[in-house]
Backbone:
């Protein structure tokens, strides 16, 4: 009888391990907006590297303080939407949360020599902390106001909206609690059966 009981406990632990390691997915709405600096510098004889550093006063579903957007630009290619390559971003917080991915520019319109309006699409490829296992994406838009017609520095305003899917895997402590709970249930049933058989 004890051997059968131990078998049930082992089965409960294995089953709880499977449950605890099975990822659960949560679909959430993502949004962030802010402003910051834009700097473009030569990265090779034929390429420019654009870096936009944004401060986000508001971001959901979890706070994000800073966003860094980087892309390579080939100034010989027109339109500018085709000139960008290796476009990537990382949004992070002081608390250790971060989400990162890639983006693509869909439109770029200059209202004047120094005022640009842009829009595009972004894709999440991963994350850290509360954003672990992030996937999904959405669209972004904003403005660049350059210091002068050289377009090498300025101020960016950006808003991003989309959907975010997080893959949540329970921590080891959750696994232990599930295993103990199931083992307790089996132990209780084992004692109840023994009590009935003795009577």
Residues:
């Amino acid at each position: 009888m004890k051997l059968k009981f131990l078998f049930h406990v082992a089965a409960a632990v294995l089953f709880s391990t499977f449950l605890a390691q099975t990822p659960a997915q949560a679909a959430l709405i993502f949004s962030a907006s802010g402003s910051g600096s834009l700097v473009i510098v030569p990265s090779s004889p034929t390429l420019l590297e654009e870096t936009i550093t944004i401060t986000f006063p508001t971001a959901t579903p979890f706070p994000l303080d800073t966003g860094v957007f980087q892309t390579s630009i080939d100034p010989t290619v027109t339109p500018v939407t085709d000139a960008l390559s290796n476009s990537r971003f990382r949004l992070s917080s002081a608390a250790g949360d971060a989400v990162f991915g890639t983006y693509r520019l869909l439109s770029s319109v200059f209202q004047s020599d120094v005022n640009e309006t842009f829009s595009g699409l972004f894709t999440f490829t991963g994350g850290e902390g509360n954003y672990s296992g992030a996937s999904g994406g959405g669209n972004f838009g904003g403005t660049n106001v350059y210091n002068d017609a050289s377009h090498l520095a300025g101020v960016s305003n950006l808003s991003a909206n989309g959907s975010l899917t997080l893959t949540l895997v329970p921590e080891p402590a959750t696994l232990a609690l599930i295993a103990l709970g199931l083992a307790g249930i089996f132990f209780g049933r084992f004692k109840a059966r023994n009590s009935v058989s003795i009577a």
In short: The chain has two domains: 2-21+177-198, 25-167. Helices lie at 2-21, 80-83, 172-198.
